[in-house]
Amino acid sequence: MSFSLEVLGWSTSWADTFAPHAAGGLTPGRVARVDRGRCDVLTASGPVRAESARADVCTGDWVALSGHYVHAVLPRRTALVRAAASGVSSGQTLAANVDVVAVVVPATTGVDLGRAERLLALAWESGARPVVVLTKTDACPDVGGVLDALAGAAVGVDVLPVSAVAGEGLDALTAELTGTVVLVGQSGVGKSTLATALTGVDLAVQDVRGVDGKGRHTTVRRELIPLRGGRGVLIDTPGLRGVGLYDASDGLTLAFADVEALAGGCRFTDCGHASEPGCAVRAAIDAGQLPERRLESYRKLLRENEWAAARTDARLRAERRRSERVAHRQYRNQWNRPGHGRR
Protein backbone atom coordinates (compact mmCIF):
# COMPACT_ATOMS: atom_id res chain seq x y z
CA MET A 1 0.00 0.00 0.00
CA SER A 2 1.41 3.39 -1.00
CA PHE A 3 1.11 6.64 0.95
CA SER A 4 0.98 10.26 -0.05
CA LEU A 5 3.89 11.97 1.66
CA GLU A 6 1.80 15.15 1.89
CA VAL A 7 -0.84 13.31 3.93
CA LEU A 8 1.94 12.15 6.23
CA GLY A 9 3.05 15.77 6.75
CA TRP A 10 5.59 16.25 3.95
CA SER A 11 5.99 19.85 2.76
CA THR A 12 8.25 22.02 0.63
CA SER A 13 10.24 22.95 3.72
CA TRP A 14 10.84 19.27 4.52
CA ALA A 15 11.81 18.72 0.88
CA ASP A 16 14.36 21.54 1.18
CA THR A 17 15.81 19.96 4.31
CA PHE A 18 15.96 16.58 2.58
CA ALA A 19 17.58 17.95 -0.62
CA PRO A 20 21.18 16.88 0.23
CA HIS A 21 19.95 13.32 0.87
CA ALA A 22 17.90 13.33 -2.33
CA ALA A 23 21.03 14.28 -4.25
CA GLY A 24 22.63 11.14 -2.85
CA GLY A 25 19.80 8.95 -4.12
CA LEU A 26 18.18 8.36 -0.72
CA THR A 27 14.43 7.96 -0.14
CA PRO A 28 12.34 10.05 2.30
CA GLY A 29 9.99 8.35 4.72
CA ARG A 30 8.28 8.84 8.05
CA VAL A 31 8.72 6.50 11.00
CA ALA A 32 5.42 4.89 11.96
CA ARG A 33 6.67 2.51 14.65
CA VAL A 34 9.93 1.56 16.35
CA ASP A 35 10.60 -1.91 17.71
CA ARG A 36 13.99 -3.22 18.97
CA GLY A 37 16.32 -1.55 16.52
CA ARG A 38 13.94 -1.84 13.60
CA CYS A 39 11.30 0.59 12.47
CA ASP A 40 8.35 0.67 10.11
CA VAL A 41 8.81 3.59 7.72
CA LEU A 42 6.03 4.91 5.48
CA THR A 43 7.24 6.01 2.04
CA ALA A 44 5.60 7.09 -1.21
CA SER A 45 6.13 3.55 -2.49
CA GLY A 46 4.72 1.83 0.58
CA PRO A 47 5.86 0.73 4.04
CA VAL A 48 9.46 -0.36 4.57
CA ARG A 49 10.79 -2.44 7.46
CA ALA A 50 14.11 -0.77 8.09
CA GLU A 51 17.09 -1.27 10.38
CA SER A 52 18.63 1.59 12.30
CA ALA A 53 21.79 1.84 14.34
CA ARG A 54 20.44 4.98 16.04
CA ALA A 55 18.78 4.52 19.40
CA ASP A 56 17.04 7.89 19.22
CA VAL A 57 14.81 7.17 16.22
CA CYS A 58 11.21 7.86 17.22
CA THR A 59 7.70 7.65 15.83
CA GLY A 60 7.10 10.79 13.79
CA ASP A 61 10.70 11.23 12.65
CA TRP A 62 11.40 11.95 8.98
CA VAL A 63 14.29 9.79 7.80
CA ALA A 64 16.48 9.19 4.77
CA LEU A 65 16.43 5.55 3.67
CA SER A 66 19.13 3.67 1.85
CA GLY A 67 17.28 0.52 0.86
CA HIS A 68 16.14 -1.02 4.16
CA TYR A 69 18.48 1.02 6.33
CA VAL A 70 17.93 4.38 8.08
CA HIS A 71 20.85 6.44 6.81
CA ALA A 72 19.91 9.72 8.53
CA VAL A 73 17.23 11.35 10.68
CA LEU A 74 16.11 14.84 9.69
CA PRO A 75 16.28 17.50 12.43
CA ARG A 76 13.14 17.51 14.55
CA ARG A 77 10.99 20.64 14.53
CA THR A 78 9.02 19.69 17.62
CA ALA A 79 9.36 16.84 20.11
CA LEU A 80 7.28 15.61 23.03
CA VAL A 81 9.84 14.62 25.68
CA ARG A 82 9.45 13.28 29.20
CA ALA A 83 12.00 12.20 31.78
CA ALA A 84 13.18 8.66 31.02
CA ALA A 85 11.03 6.07 32.78
CA SER A 86 14.18 4.30 34.03
CA GLY A 87 15.01 7.28 36.23
CA VAL A 88 18.27 8.12 34.46
CA SER A 89 19.03 11.79 33.90
CA SER A 90 17.99 11.94 30.27
CA GLY A 91 14.85 12.50 28.25
CA GLN A 92 12.67 10.04 26.36
CA THR A 93 11.10 11.32 23.16
CA LEU A 94 7.49 10.13 22.89
CA ALA A 95 6.74 11.63 19.48
CA ALA A 96 8.55 13.81 16.96
CA ASN A 97 7.46 16.56 14.56
CA VAL A 98 4.05 16.97 16.18
CA ASP A 99 1.62 19.80 15.42
CA VAL A 100 -1.01 19.15 18.11
CA VAL A 101 -0.69 17.43 21.49
CA ALA A 102 -4.11 16.21 22.65
CA VAL A 103 -4.14 15.67 26.42
CA VAL A 104 -6.88 13.09 27.00
CA VAL A 105 -8.77 13.34 30.30
CA PRO A 106 -11.72 11.10 31.27
CA ALA A 107 -14.91 12.58 32.70
CA THR A 108 -15.89 9.44 34.61
CA THR A 109 -13.29 8.83 37.30
CA GLY A 110 -12.84 12.35 38.63
CA VAL A 111 -10.50 14.89 37.12
CA ASP A 112 -6.87 14.82 38.23
CA LEU A 113 -6.09 18.48 37.58
CA GLY A 114 -2.47 18.11 38.67
CA ARG A 115 -1.85 15.39 36.08
CA ALA A 116 -3.55 17.49 33.40
CA GLU A 117 -1.27 20.43 34.27
CA ARG A 118 1.78 18.17 34.14
CA LEU A 119 0.86 16.87 30.68
CA LEU A 120 0.09 20.39 29.47
CA ALA A 121 3.55 21.57 30.59
CA LEU A 122 5.10 18.79 28.48
CA ALA A 123 2.79 19.68 25.59
CA TRP A 124 3.72 23.36 25.67
CA GLU A 125 7.42 22.51 25.95
CA SER A 126 7.20 20.34 22.83
CA GLY A 127 6.59 23.36 20.61
CA ALA A 128 3.27 21.92 19.42
CA ARG A 129 -0.20 23.31 20.14
CA PRO A 130 -1.90 21.67 23.13
CA VAL A 131 -5.59 20.88 23.43
CA VAL A 132 -7.49 19.02 26.15
CA VAL A 133 -9.97 16.32 25.14
CA LEU A 134 -12.54 15.44 27.79
CA THR A 135 -13.67 11.89 26.96
CA LYS A 136 -16.53 9.65 28.11
CA THR A 137 -18.91 12.58 28.61
CA ASP A 138 -21.85 10.26 28.03
CA ALA A 139 -21.12 8.67 31.42
CA CYS A 140 -20.64 11.96 33.33
CA PRO A 141 -23.61 13.52 35.18
CA ASP A 142 -21.93 16.94 35.51
CA VAL A 143 -20.01 17.68 32.33
CA GLY A 144 -20.34 21.43 32.89
CA GLY A 145 -18.69 21.27 36.29
CA VAL A 146 -15.82 19.17 34.97
CA LEU A 147 -15.32 21.59 32.07
CA ASP A 148 -15.18 24.53 34.49
CA ALA A 149 -12.56 22.77 36.60
CA LEU A 150 -10.44 21.93 33.56
CA ALA A 151 -10.73 25.46 32.20
CA GLY A 152 -9.00 26.72 35.36
CA ALA A 153 -6.17 24.23 34.93
CA ALA A 154 -5.78 24.57 31.16
CA VAL A 155 -5.23 28.31 30.79
CA GLY A 156 -5.05 29.36 27.13
CA VAL A 157 -5.97 25.86 25.92
CA ASP A 158 -9.17 24.69 24.23
CA VAL A 159 -11.07 22.03 26.20
CA LEU A 160 -13.20 19.85 23.93
CA PRO A 161 -15.82 17.43 25.36
CA VAL A 162 -16.47 14.27 23.36
CA SER A 163 -18.14 10.91 23.58
CA ALA A 164 -16.61 8.58 21.02
CA VAL A 165 -19.21 5.94 21.88
CA ALA A 166 -22.18 8.26 21.33
CA GLY A 167 -20.47 10.17 18.52
CA GLU A 168 -20.92 13.50 20.32
CA GLY A 169 -18.39 16.31 19.86
CA LEU A 170 -16.35 14.48 17.23
CA ASP A 171 -17.01 17.00 14.46
CA ALA A 172 -15.68 19.89 16.55
CA LEU A 173 -12.72 17.80 17.67
CA THR A 174 -11.89 16.68 14.12
CA ALA A 175 -11.80 20.31 13.01
CA GLU A 176 -9.16 21.04 15.69
CA LEU A 177 -6.96 17.99 15.11
CA THR A 178 -5.06 18.52 11.87
CA GLY A 179 -1.50 17.83 10.83
CA THR A 180 0.38 15.45 13.11
CA VAL A 181 -1.58 14.80 16.30
CA VAL A 182 -0.41 12.83 19.34
CA LEU A 183 -2.74 11.51 22.04
CA VAL A 184 -1.34 11.40 25.59
CA GLY A 185 -2.91 10.27 28.82
CA GLN A 186 -3.18 7.43 31.29
CA SER A 187 -4.29 3.96 30.37
CA GLY A 188 -8.07 3.67 30.42
CA VAL A 189 -8.89 7.31 29.62
CA GLY A 190 -10.38 6.40 26.25
CA LYS A 191 -7.46 7.08 23.90
CA SER A 192 -7.86 3.92 21.84
CA THR A 193 -11.61 4.39 21.40
CA LEU A 194 -10.97 7.99 20.40
CA ALA A 195 -8.17 6.97 18.02
CA THR A 196 -10.49 4.46 16.36
CA ALA A 197 -13.11 7.16 15.81
CA LEU A 198 -10.55 9.60 14.38
CA THR A 199 -8.76 7.16 12.07
CA GLY A 200 -11.29 4.48 11.19
CA VAL A 201 -8.71 1.87 12.22
CA ASP A 202 -10.21 -0.66 14.62
CA LEU A 203 -7.89 -0.56 17.62
CA ALA A 204 -8.45 -3.14 20.33
CA VAL A 205 -10.14 -1.70 23.42
CA GLN A 206 -9.91 -3.54 26.74
CA ASP A 207 -12.12 -3.14 29.78
CA VAL A 208 -11.40 -0.58 32.47
CA ARG A 209 -11.00 -1.86 36.04
CA GLY A 210 -13.92 -0.84 38.22
CA VAL A 211 -11.68 -0.49 41.29
CA ASP A 212 -9.65 2.50 40.14
CA GLY A 213 -10.94 3.34 36.67
CA LYS A 214 -7.67 2.32 35.03
CA GLY A 215 -7.48 0.17 31.93
CA ARG A 216 -4.97 -2.29 30.59
CA HIS A 217 -2.46 -1.04 28.04
CA THR A 218 -4.42 -1.34 24.80
CA THR A 219 -1.71 0.40 22.78
CA VAL A 220 1.63 -1.26 23.53
CA ARG A 221 3.84 0.97 21.38
CA ARG A 222 3.62 4.31 19.63
CA GLU A 223 2.12 4.07 16.16
CA LEU A 224 1.46 6.59 13.39
CA ILE A 225 -1.91 6.20 11.64
CA PRO A 226 -3.50 8.41 8.93
CA LEU A 227 -6.52 10.43 10.10
CA ARG A 228 -9.87 10.18 8.34
CA GLY A 229 -10.30 12.43 5.32
CA GLY A 230 -6.58 12.91 4.71
CA ARG A 231 -6.36 15.66 7.37
CA GLY A 232 -3.07 14.38 8.76
CA VAL A 233 -1.79 11.57 10.95
CA LEU A 234 -2.35 10.42 14.50
CA ILE A 235 0.26 9.09 16.91
CA ASP A 236 -1.38 6.89 19.53
CA THR A 237 0.77 6.34 22.62
CA PRO A 238 0.59 3.69 25.34
CA GLY A 239 -0.97 4.78 28.62
CA LEU A 240 1.50 6.86 30.62
CA ARG A 241 1.68 5.75 34.25
CA GLY A 242 4.51 8.11 35.11
CA VAL A 243 5.22 11.40 33.36
CA GLY A 244 8.34 13.12 34.65
CA LEU A 245 9.30 16.60 33.52
CA TYR A 246 12.51 17.00 31.56
CA ASP A 247 13.90 20.47 30.80
CA ALA A 248 10.39 21.93 30.69
CA SER A 249 10.89 25.44 32.09
CA ASP A 250 9.31 27.14 29.07
CA GLY A 251 6.43 24.68 29.13
CA LEU A 252 5.77 25.42 32.80
CA THR A 253 5.78 29.15 32.13
CA LEU A 254 3.11 28.69 29.45
CA ALA A 255 1.08 26.10 31.37
CA PHE A 256 0.92 28.42 34.39
CA ALA A 257 0.68 31.69 32.51
CA ASP A 258 -1.91 32.99 35.00
CA VAL A 259 0.42 32.46 37.97
CA GLU A 260 3.34 33.98 36.07
CA ALA A 261 1.26 37.05 35.16
CA LEU A 262 0.21 37.56 38.78
CA ALA A 263 3.80 37.10 40.01
CA GLY A 264 4.82 39.98 37.78
CA GLY A 265 2.79 42.26 40.05
CA CYS A 266 4.49 41.20 43.29
CA ARG A 267 6.43 43.86 45.19
CA PHE A 268 9.59 41.71 45.29
CA THR A 269 11.03 40.04 42.20
CA ASP A 270 12.10 37.01 44.28
CA CYS A 271 8.73 36.69 46.00
CA GLY A 272 8.05 33.16 47.25
CA HIS A 273 4.27 33.78 47.40
CA ALA A 274 4.15 32.75 51.04
CA SER A 275 3.83 35.65 53.49
CA GLU A 276 5.77 38.40 51.74
CA PRO A 277 4.14 41.86 51.77
CA GLY A 278 2.77 43.05 48.46
CA CYS A 279 2.40 39.52 47.01
CA ALA A 280 -0.03 39.69 44.09
CA VAL A 281 -0.34 35.91 43.96
CA ARG A 282 -1.44 35.62 47.60
CA ALA A 283 -3.85 38.52 47.07
CA ALA A 284 -5.44 36.67 44.13
CA ILE A 285 -5.77 33.51 46.24
CA ASP A 286 -7.33 35.44 49.13
CA ALA A 287 -9.78 37.06 46.69
CA GLY A 288 -10.78 33.67 45.27
CA GLN A 289 -9.34 34.47 41.85
CA LEU A 290 -6.66 31.76 41.96
CA PRO A 291 -7.03 28.35 43.66
CA GLU A 292 -4.41 27.53 46.29
CA ARG A 293 -4.18 24.11 44.65
CA ARG A 294 -2.93 25.65 41.41
CA LEU A 295 -0.08 27.49 43.13
CA GLU A 296 0.94 24.31 44.95
CA SER A 297 0.88 22.36 41.68
CA TYR A 298 3.08 25.01 40.08
CA ARG A 299 5.57 24.85 42.96
CA LYS A 300 5.68 21.05 42.84
CA LEU A 301 6.37 20.93 39.11
CA LEU A 302 8.99 23.69 39.36
CA ARG A 303 10.87 21.73 42.05
CA GLU A 304 10.71 18.56 39.97
CA ASN A 305 11.99 20.33 36.87
CA GLU A 306 14.83 21.96 38.80
CA TRP A 307 15.80 18.58 40.27
CA ALA A 308 15.82 16.99 36.80
CA ALA A 309 17.94 19.86 35.46
CA ALA A 310 20.43 19.40 38.30
CA ARG A 311 20.71 15.67 37.53
CA THR A 312 21.27 16.45 33.87
CA ASP A 313 23.98 19.00 34.70
CA ALA A 314 25.69 16.45 36.95
CA ARG A 315 25.57 13.82 34.20
CA LEU A 316 27.06 16.24 31.66
CA ARG A 317 29.84 17.18 34.08
CA ALA A 318 30.61 13.49 34.67
CA GLU A 319 30.69 12.80 30.93
CA ARG A 320 33.01 15.76 30.39
CA ARG A 321 35.36 14.51 33.12
CA ARG A 322 35.39 11.05 31.54
CA SER A 323 36.20 12.54 28.14
CA GLU A 324 39.01 14.59 29.65
CA ARG A 325 40.47 11.51 31.36
CA VAL A 326 40.34 9.53 28.10
CA ALA A 327 42.03 12.36 26.19
CA HIS A 328 44.70 12.72 28.88
CA ARG A 329 45.35 8.96 28.84
CA GLN A 330 45.66 8.93 25.05
CA TYR A 331 48.04 11.91 25.18
CA ARG A 332 50.17 10.21 27.87
CA ASN A 333 50.29 6.92 25.96
CA GLN A 334 51.32 8.73 22.81
CA TRP A 335 54.36 10.30 24.50
CA ASN A 336 55.29 7.09 26.29
CA ARG A 337 55.70 5.20 23.03
CA PRO A 338 59.30 4.50 21.89
CA GLY A 339 60.72 7.45 19.99
CA HIS A 340 58.50 10.00 21.73
CA GLY A 341 60.25 10.22 25.07
CA ARG A 342 62.06 13.22 26.42
CA ARG A 343 65.62 13.76 25.25
From TrEMBL:
List UniProt keywords, sorted A-Z. Cytoplasm, GTP-binding, Hydrolase, Metal-binding, Nucleotide-binding, Ribosome biogenesis, RNA-binding, rRNA-binding, Zinc
Under CDD domains, the record lists:
YjeQ_EngC (cd01854)
Which metal ions or organic cofactors does this protein require, according to UniProt?
A: Zn(2+)
Q: Where are the transmembrane segments?
A: none
The record's GO molecular-function terms, alphabetically, read:
GTP binding; GTPase activity; metal ion binding; rRNA binding
Q: Does the keyword RNA-binding apply?
A: yes
Supply the InterPro entries for this chain. Answer: P-loop_NTPase, Ribosome_biogen_GTPase_RsgA, RsgA_GTPase_dom, Sigma_54_int_dom_ATP-bd_1
Q: What is its EC number?
A: 3.6.1.-
GO cellular component terms, alphabetically, are: cytoplasm
Q: Where is the composition biased (Basic and acidic residues)?
A: 318-327
Q: Does the keyword ATP-binding apply?
A: no
Q: EngC GTPase domain: which residues?
A: 96-241
Free-text comment on the cofactor: Binds 1 zinc ion per subunit.
Positions that bind Zn(2+): C266, C271, H273, C279
What's the top EC group for this one?
A: hydrolase
What this chain does, per the entry, is described as: One of several proteins that assist in the late maturation steps of the functional core of the 30S ribosomal subunit. Helps release RbfA from mature subunits. May play a role in the assembly of ribosomal proteins into the subunit. Circularly permuted GTPase that catalyzes slow GTP hydrolysis, GTPase activity is stimulated by the 30S ribosomal subunit.
Its protein name is Small ribosomal subunit biogenesis GTPase RsgA
Question: From which organism does this entry originate?
Answer: Cryptosporangium phraense
Question: Upper taxonomic classification of the species?
Answer: Bacteria, Bacillati, Actinomycetota, Actinomycetes, Cryptosporangiales
Q: What gene name is listed for this protein?
A: rsgA
